[in-house]
């Protein structure tokens, strides 16, 4: 059984792709790194996917889906961060009402950093195939007021990233992925 965390690797000839979507890739990597460093061993596999070809029609995600769809019943949740790593506010979630209730309860663990909201619908080109077929999905919600200042521009460099805000995003990704991976049962479909 798998909990999938992800971001995609974009590179544009006018920018570095640090925010879109280096930040999402980084917090996904950091979540697994933190869990390992803490010596935690969840009941399910945590899998990091760094998607490719998202801007070219999601070809990387489509290929991954084709290779793994026969095991779709073993995918507990698919998570994608693709709107920068600014100050987080919660998760977009797609799934059953019962699963949404579990995720809302889980998000109360993040009250100390004030990131507790569960929004309707997860977004993500790279996880869309899975969600279409009933796998619960989550996407990071954060303050995107400045997102399009940098999106696909020369300004999309590492200087855009605020380490404190990225740490908060990584904390959200870590807590959500670990708790879901360590629950007794998979999220209900």
From TrEMBL:
Q: In this record, what's one Pfam family?
A: Peptidase_M28
The Peptidase M28 domain extends over: 1-173
Subcellular localization, per the record?
Endoplasmic reticulum; Golgi apparatus; Lysosome; Secreted
**A GO molecular function held by the record:** metal ion binding
What does the entry list under GO cellular component? endoplasmic reticulum; extracellular space; Golgi apparatus; lysosome
Please provide the record's keywords in A-Z order: Carboxypeptidase, Endoplasmic reticulum, Glycoprotein, Golgi apparatus, Hydrolase, Lysosome, Metal-binding, Metalloprotease, Protease, Secreted, Signal, Zinc, Zymogen
The source's domain of life comes to Eukaryota
One Gene Ontology term from the biological process aspect of the record: proteolysis
Q: How does it assemble?
A: Homodimer. The monomeric form is inactive while the homodimer is active.
Q: Which family does it belong to?
A: Belongs to the peptidase M28 family.
Output this protein's name: Carboxypeptidase Q
